[in-house]
Amino acid sequence: MNKTVLDLWVGLFVVAGIAAILFLALKVGSMNAVTASDSYQVTANFENIGGLKSRAPVKSAGVVIGRVADIGFDPETYEAVVTLRLDNRYAFPKDTIAAILTSGLLGEQYIGLAAGGDSVKLKDKDRILITQDAVVLENLISKFMYSKAQEGAPE
């Protein structure tokens, strides 16, 4: 084989490899994407969201049922306002509990929904009233250290 034909084949192989990587990256990036047409939006207020980010998963019973659409701040209540986009296939009661949980010890944070017992279901633009803030590891450590210091302090 002459050098130009070899260079052409190597170039084609490199282009095919880059195209495959790009295809996989796009496929993984939009995995379990919930579009606006087949979803409804609800909000929840939290005092502390920890490291929660937009596009974080919303799970119930370990199943991804939506994504975090937006995170904002309410200047009147001084709380974080988290907007969730949930798949229309999953209707949750009005008394659903939203908690910020962590995958593993130091993993990514996500919203976990625990369904309540109300017969009325959440609708588009509703608010989840019962929330549980993120557990911040630094706060736990400081509380533990403070309690240990108080135990050892003379009275």
Structural class: alpha/beta
Strand order of the largest sheet: 7-1-4-3-2-6-5-8
| Percent of sequence in beta strands | 25-35%
Helix residue percentage: 25-40%
Mean pLDDT: 88
What's the SSE pattern?
HEEEEEEEEH
- The low-pLDDT segments are none
Number of helices: 2
Radius of gyration: 23 Å
Number of domains: 2
> What would the principal axes of the Cα set say about the shape?
flat
Cα-to-Cα separation, first versus last residue? 90 Å
Q: How many runs of DSSP E, i.e. beta strands?
A: 8
Question: For the report, how would you describe the main beta sheet?
Answer: 8 strands, mixed
How are the secondary structure elements laid out?
Blueprint: H1 3-29, E1 39-46, E2 57-60, E3 63-74, E4 79-87, E5 97-102, E6 109-114, E7 126-128, E8 130-132, H2 137-152
Parallel strand pairs: 1-7, 2-6, 5-8
Antiparallel strand pairs: 1-4, 2-3, 3-4, 5-6
Task: Looking at this protein, list some descriptive labels.
155 residues, alpha/beta, 2 domains, 8-stranded mixed β-sheet, 8 strands, flat
Describe the structure.
This protein is an alpha/beta fold and 155 residues long. It folds into two domains: 1-31; 36-142, no CATH class. 28% of the residues lie in helices and 33% in strands. The protein is built from two helices and eight strands, in the order H-E-E-E-E-E-E-E-E-H. The protein has helices spanning 3-29, 137-152, and strands at 39-46, 57-60, 63-74, 79-87, 97-102, 109-114, 126-128, 130-132. An eight-stranded mixed beta sheet has the order 7-1-4-3-2-6-5-8, with no helix packed on it. The longest helix is centred in the N-terminal third of the chain and has 27 residues, at 3-29. The protein is flat. It starts with a helix and ends with a helix. The model has no long low-confidence stretch (mean pLDDT 88).
